[in-house]
Structures are given as structure tokens and as C-alpha cells.
Amino acid sequence: MHNGPVRIALIDSGLGLLSTAAALRRARPDADLVLSMDPDHMPWGPRTPADVAERALAGARAALPYRPDALVVACNTASVHALDRLRAEFEPGVPVIGTVPAVKPAAATGGPVAVWATPATTGSAYQRELIERFAAGVPVAAVACPGLAEAVESADSERIDAAVADAAGRSPADTAVVVLGCTHYDLVQDRIVSAFARPVALMTAAGAVAAQTLRRLGARPEPDAAPTGALTVLASGRAAGFPERAAGYPAACALTTAQPLSRSAARPSH
């Protein structure tokens, strides 16, 4: 069992990590969070698998001086391509937790299910195998969402609405559950729900990833803990402020009141 506050680093190309960070903040208001983004090299989606792995490794290495207790890969693409390399480098000293689309719980509802993801993830063997493994016999549509992650990253309202409307229009009319297979999509859940003519349920991985992170650390959720957790933002390895473009997303509200964490707040090396 982990004693005392925890310190967790999250890795993504950009704003997609906010939903998981917010879930961790709700579960442990006393947790220190390090958000390691990569604005110099985003988006990661069109990159080769080897390049995505290198970018994720660079993000994790940039966070390491802050002595995190765990590393969370808050990106579906990076979880597919980088998890093995990250675990080989950092475990067992620092647990590495990946992000898996919520296909299994969505399939348990009986569907019909639409899995929204980036074009690269939609066409991947990884997603096909995930659907075959957990959703056999359930109607599942794989819906590529070109441009949606990029629109969310830039907080471009018109582009977000256009990309969401396009993906909703290509989802089966009887869709009951939408799996958000890219962490960026979590930030515009209200727009996605509104784009459907009938009620749909959304399933994201953020809550499950936060819970798994605490389990790996042997730490309990303590939502009533004092909100003493610090927040640090890294931009391609450089210390940075919280991205202004994120201010309009609800997930950001849970994060922006924290004080920054100093590299000098060192802990014993793992």
C-alpha cells in the first residue's frame, strides 16, 4: 500500500491527457500531476509506429526528473505503439499504465456500438483484434474521425462541430453506445451526444485508467482529500504554463487551480 500523496506523470502529444488527469484529480485531489505534452511534434497519429514510440519515450524521460510514482500513457495511439518499450525502460521501478478503448464494457451493453477513433487507429490490427476479442456477436461499427483530434487540440469550435457531425453522420442510425477511442474526443463529449438524433451513451477510458493507476500504486481513491496536489506542464520537455486553448474544456477546470511542482521537489530515486 502506497503511503502519502502520489505523484503521477501523464504523457500525450497534447490536450488528450486532460480527461485522465481530471479523473485522477477527482479521485486524489492531493496527487501531484505532471502533464508531459509534445507540441513540437504533434500530431502523433500520422507518424510511424517507431516514431510514436520515440516521442512517447521522450515525454516520459522529460517527466522523470520530477520523480513520478507512475507513468500514464494517456493516448490510445501511443499505448498501441509505445507501451512495451516504455515498460522495458521504466518498470519495475515506475509502473506504466496504458489506455485501452472501452470496447469491452460497451459490448456488454449489447450495442449497437460505434467506435470512434483516428483514421490510423481505426485501420489498425490492434483495434480489429480488440473488437473481435471483446465484442463478438455485438454490432460494432468502426468510425474513423478525420480531423477531430486536431480540431480539439486547436480548440477550433467550427472544425470540431464539422468533424463531429461528419462522424455522427457515418455512424449507424441505431447506434446506442459510442466508444471514444481517442482521448482528445473526451473533451467534447457534450457535442458528440448532441450530434445524434437519438440518445447515445458515451464510454471513455479515463476513469478506468485513473482507477488502474491507483491500483498499480497500491493507493486508494480519496476524493475528499485536501486539494493540495501540484500541477506541472511540460511542452516537449520544457517547463510551460497551462495551455490557454484548453481553458474552454470542462476537464481543465479541475486542474488549473493547482500550484506548479518544482523539479527541486525531488524524491529518492526509484
Automatic annotation (TrEMBL):
Keyword annotations of the record: Isomerase
Family matches, as Gene3D superfamilies: 3.40.50.1860
The keyword Iron-sulfur appears for this protein: no
Gene Ontology MF terms: glutamate racemase activity
GO terms (BP aspect): peptidoglycan biosynthetic process
InterPro entries: Asp/Glu/hydantoin_racemase, Asp/Glu_race, Asp/Glu_racemase_AS_1
Protein's UniProt name: Glutamate racemase
Lineage, opening ranks: Bacteria, Bacillati, Actinomycetota, Actinomycetes, Streptosporangiales
